[in-house]
Fold:
Amino acid sequence: MRPERTVDVLIVGAGPAGLAAAAGLAAAGVGRVEVLEREERAGGVPRHCHHGGFGARTFAGLTGPGTSGPRYARARVDAALRAGASVRTGVTATGWAGPLTLDTTSPRGLERLTARAVVLATGARERPRAARLVPGSRAAGVYTTGELQQAVHLYGQHIGTRAVVVGAEPVAYAALDTLRRAGVEVAAQVTAESRHRATPWRAAESRLRYGVPLLTGAAVTELVGRGRVSAVGVRHRTGLLAQLSCDTVVFTGDFVPDHELARRGGVSLAPGTRGPAIDADFRTDIPGVFAVGNVAHAVEPAGAVAAEGWRAAVSVRRYLLSGRWPSVVRGV
Amino acid sequence: MSGAGTPGTGAGAPGTGGPGRVTRTGALPPAPTAPRSGPTPTSASAHEPYDVTVIGAGVVGTAIARELARHRLRIAVVEAADDVGEGTSKANTAILHTGFDAVPGSLEARLVREGQRRLAAYAAECGIPVERVGALLVAWDEEQLAALPALRSKAGRNGYDRTVLLDAAELRAREPHLGPGALGALEVPDESIICPWTTPLAYATQAVRSGVDLHLNCRLTDAGPAAPGAGPRTLTTSRGELRTRYLVNAAGLHADTVDRMLGHDTFTVTPRRGQLIVFDKLARGLVDHILLPVPTALGKGVLVAPTVYGNVLLGPTAEDLDDKRATGTTADGLACLRARGARILPALLDEDVTAAYAGLRAATEDDDYRIAPWPDQRYVTVGGIRSTGLTASMAIAAHVTGLLADCGLDLGEPGDLAPVTMPHLGERFPRPYQRADLIAADPAYGTLVCHCERVTRGEIRDALTSTVPPVSVDGLRRRTRARGGRCQGFSCGAAVRALLEGHDRLETR
Structure:
């Protein structure tokens, strides 16, 4: 029923890590290297990050401006294709049919792909409101940065008029950029931590140039609103309670690995990250199955996980040549 | 049929006269000039009244409309919300009960027992997901253990004799992930899980296709006086007036308010809030049965149950409130549920939460349903339908139809409704993304939009063009599961919204 096919290396996820691994492997001439991407466009999260800084190089202590996410994503896809990898979009790996065999669904039908090695590069996602157990109303107007960026940059959707941004990691500042671009006023940025986690320049620009107040030591206790969000309840560590009125709330950061495929394949997880447990060579405890990028350690910038992808390519190639797998994989 | 202006009764073939209307905006259109299934009326008039109007499009109201649609009647359903099942129906524990623990001899006990059989058969016929997973009433202390035999005999008095007492070892063999300290259980093999969203939608779909008018966004503000004789009364709604000969109050949480509009002050609905937490599919392997608490003097307690979508449900709390709109969760409620869940199924708490929500059950001061005919007013109250309403819905509908006849409604002979097939949202059968035949015929079924729940563009398109289409992201989720998974829209939210709003081809980069 399901057509079956064999490839040399199957990479799940065409984000920066998966594409770099694909480029490295294809360039090394390991045979057929196929990347499966469930979205209609390859490139991963940078696809919808319109801020700059992607692929920025640091030299003598100075960091260059880099490029925008979509540009960076296209360049990574092109690099993988040029190296000879096959990047298939709109193809979802739905489950395992064997230790190195994956079932897929795409508009062209169902397939069963067996590889000599499988690389899981499924990335990470921001923990949404429900998983954070933020109580209150289930009103509309609640986003993660990922959804917000896609809504604004890929679909041009209307967002709202006044937002509260939860979190102060670098991604929160990306969310602020996107909100500004969408014409949404920002009531406040709140974080339970005592300070922001972005570069001092980013944080200062946000506060001073754009006038976004940063409330530190403040936890979101409740969402208020019927149909649409009307306010966010916050509690300061001093016990002070306040409601910030807004019609949009963006939960940023707090990344968690997209580990479903790893778990369905019986790959052991690292207790700290809940991503697949891997050793220094990106090997999981299932022989032939590697994991690379933010699925293994949410979350690092695109350039860092692309570098991992290149290193993983070396490990995968070594495994294809030697066939050796350690009996016990120790996490790093 | 009293004064409907059509010749004859009984020869009706419901469903052959064209579908009813689903309206959400604008002034209410006049009632159709004749029963849709009947021949050309002899006295056509734009001001013909409806024969029966049902207030409320929850699982009970839609079931009643569907049952009435088997007869040659002009029927309207009037609903304040913008979708069916928007009140209590959408936020419950999604269990198809056997009625083993009902109050023996009560109306609820009878209707749950009968409704369970009817709905199980109906679900099989139209593709409403049901799984007979069975329930275990788990005893965690000696007092609860001692209560099990009495529950078993109570089940017997409710006509259910398939319960089995299990000792601790037998229980653990069935549920190895149970927390330490479980002493035994009463097994109820026929308790099932069901899709609470598809059920009212199936009723509404079949009703509308059989000629029922469904008026949404339409809040009843005044029920008017009953006209003398068989004349119609005029209902005032937020979207204008509507005339009807008979009236059914299936307003759920607001059934007491509607009842007072009719001059009755016999019960008060006290919303009982139940908060629930839904865990991700990766938790499904932890539990095979509905794990019920043993009811004690302190209340019914918290259950853990699989869902037909492959999730695990933890809840509900039981908080009596005054505010019929208090459907928010609370920090205390969620913390309490997690503490209870940690005892029942400790590994559950390591899994991702995909949703936390609260539903309001329509509790009254009475311990039974409040279903009462008022023949002088040609009016039937259907109140106090609590969490068992989903199970009992079809039996309630049959019962209410009988009461309408007692109030003078000429039903004629019922006909058969054209069957409906609902999209199967459950995990028990292959979903569209797993079906080569469907994808070959239409590649849209191979195009995944929501990755966590594996919902395809084809399924979303089908929902948007269905008989009772959604108008919100939540309505679309209840019809397809799109956006209902662990990422809550991180990956697909914008794409799903674009499909809903009809701008799905804007992605340019």
Summary: Residues 450 and 492 of chain B are 5 Å apart (CA to CA). Chain B has three domains: 22-88+198-268+366-406, 135-189+270-360, 432-501. The mean pLDDT of chain B is 91.
